[in-house]
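I hope you will forgive my troubling you with a question about protein structure. I am sending you one protein, given as its amino acid sequence and as whole-number tokens for its backbone shapes. Thank you for your consideration; the sequence and its tokens are set out here:
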Amino acid sequence: MSHEPPLPALTAADSEVANLVEAEARRQHDKIRMIASENYVSRAVLEATGTVLTNKYSEGYAGRRYYEGQQVIDQVENLTIERAKAVFGVDHANVQPYSGSPANLAVYLALAKPGDTIMGMALPDGGHLTHGWTVSATGKWFNAVRYGVRKETGRVDFDQVRELAREQRPKLIFAGGTAIPRTIEFATFAEIAREVDAVLVADIAHIAGLVAGGAHPSPVGHAPIITTTTHKTLRGPRGAMIMTDADYAKDIDKAVFPGLQGGPHNHTTAAIAVALGEASRPDFRDYAHNVVANAKALADALLERGFDLVSGGTDNHLILADLTSKEIGGKPAAQALDRAGIELNYNTVPFDPRKPFDPSGIRIGTAALTTRGLRPEHQPQIAEWIDRVVTATARSDESVIDTVSAEVGELLAEYPIPGYAA
């Protein structure tokens, strides 16, 4: 088995790098990949990222470039923009940001000044670093106010959101995050933002594919600015987009370029176009709904095995489990599961008494395994494997690792991945 598309030129020119690429392809094939921010892109997306478009430098925007020779690149970028507008139903899309964090920084640059008050979900409760967390530039440059979840429910505490917003009068309010297992209530956030004259920013990096496929409510009509990565559930390359109402288009474009970056990565832009084309098709809607069905089935199976799930379950692609009752930390559990062929990440949980690098929880996602073709009927077996490894690891028993790894491999042999084939 080998990487697809094949790598003959790379193998001939630099076998060391080629061998590492092959090793990673094999690793991705051999494990159930359940990191919530990861997925498998299609072979078409892979091919687009490896084209001669990477040779071209294109500072500026279509029709307004600083270098000549943009006749084709302008078409690529315009196509990507039009597809983004069609898939998400927005007025404007900027497809140039290099990744999600720079996309969020562009929003700050466009609409806020250092020292302004901004508001976002606290990182330990499921937010993102760039929503004003302490160690981020956004937490250092702005007066960051942070909301959280209710301890008894694990869901956003909207009484707290409203109270903080009225008291602090933030210029921006961010909705979204990295470890939120429930539906994001954009309408409620929008109501609070209007009340305090704040701009609501919806960060849908994790759920963009679910929104595109109709498996999660859209922020369009509630948030005038929407940021997202283009990988995760959207199944595109590692890039980002900012989508806005017409009123914010000019300011956002200026913030991206020349405010934060130079020329866009044209090969990535083309791959985003491919992914958006895929997301516009009926089978992508099936995929998005299957992601949620798999997550719900897995959550139910984990609950039956005594796992403590933040908020009691999931509405999307993501499950957050607190392992305190299993008498093991998230980090040793995640490392043991990786050795057993189940790849996920350790994660803080709300009100976590442990440190972020050794937290109480694990974060589990179903986007990649759904792309691979696994279905709800497979989830009880996956839950059993997770339970078996976590329980054994808590007892310092490594004997089950090899057994589970072999069982995982046997299942996955029937479900090939894009990018690796016989």
